[in-house]
Amino acid sequence: QQGQNYDYEVVAQQGTTEFYKGISTETYGYNGDLLGPTLTIEEGEKVEVKITNDLNEPTTFHWHGLEVAGEIDGGPLDEIQPGESRIITLEADQPAATLWYHPHVHEMTAEQVYRGLSGMLLIDSSDKEELAIPNDYGVNDIPLIFQDRLFSEDKQLNYNQLMDEDGTLGDVSIVNGTINPKLTITKPIMRFRVLNGSNARNYTFSLSNDASFTQIASDGSLLDEPVEIQELTLAASERAEILIDFSKLTAEESLAIINDEGVELLPFDVKLEDATANPTEKWTTEEPFLTPEEKEMPIEKNIELFGMMDMVTINGKKFDADRIDLRQEQGVTEVWEVYNKKDMMGGMIHPFHIHGTQFKVISRDGKEVDPSEQGLKDSVLVNPGEKVKLLVTFPEKGVYVFHCHILEHEDSGMMGQIEIY
Ligand code: C2O
Ligand code: CU
Ligand code: CU
């Protein structure tokens, strides 16, 4: 199909990366050696995308958080074989948000993501709120993909040797694919689109000077109103957009994003061109996050997450491609209750993700959620023993999966299928 123009061409391919200077290791990437280009779709617009698999194994192209029809969602049934291409149309019929894309081949998702297949997918909008916040991509609007990796002694990424069935955790932090990153800051107010792109790790981010920062968006939309926080916790696959104000830093002061152990994940090199910060206008949404009726809706679906290692299940079952576990009508809103059942060991956090929808979190153990969760979500952290209620609507039809986003759990079958009719 030479000469044909697509809005985007995305090729999954093999490459090599020098995480450590002078030592290369085999990695996967989209259109390159590691990670992928940021794709942007305007709210309400369509883009034509040519997806190609140049790997030596099957892959899929999943648009995490995008409300597309089941047939182009890129779930585990949507394999693209080595050498194959497909042309699809992605439509952003949903609010501005920071989404992402990654492969989803059953039993190979964790390894393919670990080797480097992930990219950002942004929905842009010219809404009033969007324009009032920094939106100069690469200048004051920066995506940050946080991941952790393990390297063998000779600094090679070897997934099979490192794989842990409860989720491969690494002792090396990478940000946008870089070890020991440093980011130069030239603008006083910076917007960061933070993705926890790790296979399993939960991150709690804060600033090295303990200062507060502003969270403006959750996975799938702006928050109902910006919220000042000092800590941001993201489970695997969750996103948040935050604003950090650098204008009040004194010349000697240094600043970094750190984790809950005080480890610097991303130090900043602050070189402001002009320190006058135009404060972002605060917005508040007139409508309540949830109407009284929505809060009172009866539970229609019960989801029970259970287990650890490879003994993980949803509602007592492992994934079966030939089985439809749940059904829901297109456009009809239902309440799901997701219960993370403890085991004898006490259980563990499972980040629960649903394809094809952006939902609202109604409550955690009956309590209204924090303002930082009062925006659209597609993944939700569920603590051991906790019951989380979700308000779920699917705008499109098709078969979708829902699963734990600890990728090794997903590959071990902690996943089910829902048909939207
Ligand atoms: Cu991030 Cu099933 O996806
Ligand atoms: Cu997804
Ligand atoms: Cu899990």
From TrEMBL:
Q: Name one GO molecular function term.
A: oxidoreductase activity
Query: Can you tell which superkingdom this protein's organism belongs to?
Result: Bacteria
Tell me the keywords, alphabetical order. Metal-binding, Oxidoreductase
Give the range the annotation lists for the signal sequence.
none
The UniProt record lists the Plastocyanin-like domain at: 13-126, 297-419
Question: What does the similarity note say?
Answer: Belongs to the multicopper oxidase family.
**Protein's recorded name:** Copper oxidase
Instruction: Name the species this protein comes from.
Output: Planococcus plakortidis
Q: What is the lineage of its organism?
A: Bacteria, Bacillati, Bacillota, Bacilli, Bacillales
From-to range in the entire protein, with total length: 80 to 500 of 500
